Amino acid sequence: MKKYICTVCDYIYDPALGDPDSGIEAGTAFEDIPEDWECPDCGVTKEDFEPFEED
Ligand SMILES: [Fe+2]
């Protein structure tokens, strides 16, 4: 599964970790996060995230 990065604050969503503080279980793909989820660091929505390319 792909990581996604917040284009506002550079928070990286890692599907292996999820976002348990917001009720997103580890192993949840970014695509499967509810649309009303907010970046845990800056509060923007999924629209402000883009795929994070790792080398
Ligand atoms: Fe953010």
TrEMBL record:
<dbReference type="GO" id="GO:0043448">
    <property type="term" value="P:alkane catabolic process"/>
</dbReference>
<dbReference type="InterPro" id="IPR024935">
    <property type="entry name" value="Rubredoxin_dom"/>
</dbReference>
<keyword id="KW-0249">Electron transport</keyword>
<dbReference type="InterPro" id="IPR018527">
    <property type="entry name" value="Rubredoxin_Fe_BS"/>
</dbReference>
<feature type="binding site">
    <location>
        <position position="9"/>
    </location>
    <ligand>
        <name>Fe cation</name>
    </ligand>
</feature>
<keyword id="KW-0479">Metal-binding</keyword>
<dbReference type="Pfam" id="PF00301">
    <property type="entry name" value="Rubredoxin"/>
</dbReference>
<feature type="binding site">
    <location>
        <position position="42"/>
    </location>
    <ligand>
        <name>Fe cation</name>
    </ligand>
</feature>
<feature type="domain" description="Rubredoxin-like">
    <location>
        <begin position="1"/>
        <end position="52"/>
    </location>
</feature>
<keyword id="KW-0813">Transport</keyword>
<keyword id="KW-0408">Iron</keyword>
<dbReference type="InterPro" id="IPR050526">
    <property type="entry name" value="Rubredoxin_ET"/>
</dbReference>
<dbReference type="InterPro" id="IPR024934">
    <property type="entry name" value="Rubredoxin-like_dom"/>
</dbReference>
<dbReference type="InterPro" id="IPR024922">
    <property type="entry name" value="Rubredoxin"/>
</dbReference>
<protein>
    <recommendedName>
        <fullName>Rubredoxin</fullName>
    </recommendedName>
</protein>
<comment type="similarity">
    <text>Belongs to the rubredoxin family.</text>
</comment>
<dbReference type="GO" id="GO:0005506">
    <property type="term" value="F:iron ion binding"/>
</dbReference>
<dbReference type="GO" id="GO:0009055">
    <property type="term" value="F:electron transfer activity"/>
</dbReference>
<feature type="binding site">
    <location>
        <position position="39"/>
    </location>
    <ligand>
        <name>Fe cation</name>
    </ligand>
</feature>
<feature type="binding site">
    <location>
        <position position="6"/>
    </location>
    <ligand>
        <name>Fe cation</name>
    </ligand>
</feature>
